[in-house]
Design goal:
Elements (H helix, E strand, L loop, with lengths): L2 H20 L10 H23 L4 H21 L2 H26 L3 H20 L4 H8 L8 E5 L9 E5 H16 L4 H20 L7 H11 L1 H7 L48
Antiparallel strand pairs: 1-2
Helix pairs in contact: 1-2, 1-4, 2-4, 2-7, 2-8, 3-4, 4-7, 5-6, 5-9, 7-8, 7-9, 8-9
């Protein structure tokens, strides 16, 4: 991993831990505004960590190692009630799993229709999981709400301890965050703009949820991914297999977001809280 990216990940992780630990020492202000700002800070830090990690294009062995370490940290942190440790573990695990899936998909096929279909299906299934009475997320929130914290990355509300008030991002949301970002790299889409749009989609979802009810995050995430790359997808929609960005023997001379990439054969550089979705924070 290049040093600037490693420094970015470490710095974002340290700020994330500090925010989680000392949020209760910060002054409180208007409800809803404090939740939105807290969510924006938390998701932006996650975005920096995920974006920097995905841009390094680590090997499968590295992904499996970090995912395993992350899973252990998530389990230990949850068992010991050390929220920062559990959160960083979930972020590491979700990012590595998502990156592996997204990269594997791009390597498997260069047909953009596959990732588009997946994005639509993910949004529909997540919405069904939250809204349908027999949906897994709906059942979890209504039948066993005390277990929700085990599946989310918690962002404390400014002025409150993370144990008293938080909003959060499901671990599954982090997985698909990494997946779509890795797909943007693999399919030569707009990587940086995709990252910013997906971060914004999480904040928008939580903001809307404050005036309504618990909402799934993946429909917004999928929409953000598709919206910022819509013209590129449309131009390649009817391209025959083998003409896409990952075509065997093809050349990856440049990425769509303007960043240079390596030639063919090299590794191109890149740039409430339900288990899947955003919601108003928990209050004591």
């Amino acid at each position: 991993m290049k040093r600037p990216r490693a420094v970015a990940i470490a710095a974002a992780a340290l700020v994330f831990v500090a925010f989680t630990v000392w949020s209760g020492q910060l002054p409180t202000f208007a409800f809803r505004a404090d939740v939105i700002i807290s969510m924006a800070i938390g998701v932006a830090l996650v975005g920096v960590m995920v974006g920097a990690a995905v841009s390094t294009r680590p090997a499968t062995s590295q992904l499996l190692t970090v995912a395993g370490i992350g899973l252990v940290c998530a389990v230990l942190g949850s068992a010991l009630d050390v929220v920062p440790l559990a959160d960083l573990g979930k972020i590491a695990f979700g990012t590595c799993v998502g990156f592996w899936l997204g990269s594997a998909l791009a390597d498997l096929t260069d047909d953009l229709r596959v990732i588009v279909t997946l994005a639509v299906a993910i949004g529909v299934l997540d919405a069904a999981s939250v809204f349908l009475p027999q949906g897994p997320t709906h059942l979890l929130l209504t039948k066993a709400p005390q277990t929700v914290s085990y599946f989310v990355v918690a962002f404390p509300t400014i002025g409150y301890s993370v144990h008293d008030a938080y909003s959060g991002l499901g671990t599954s949301d982090v997985i698909f965050f990494g997946l779509f970002l890795a797909a943007a790299v693999g399919y030569r889409l707009r990587v940086r703009l995709t990252l910013v749009a997906m971060v914004a989609s999480f904040v928008v979802t939580v903001t809307v949820a404050l005036w309504s009810r618990a909402l799934p995050a993946l429909p917004g995430l999928s929409l953000a991914f598709l919206a910022v790359n819509a013209d590129l997808i449309a131009r390649r929609w009817h391209a025959p297999a083998g003409d896409g960005p990952a075509a065997s023997g093809g050349s990856r001379s440049a990425r769509s977001d303007g960043a240079p990439s390596a030639p063919s054969g090299g590794s191109p550089p890149s740039a409430e809280s339900p288990p899947s979705g955003g919601s108003p924070p928990r209050r004591p």
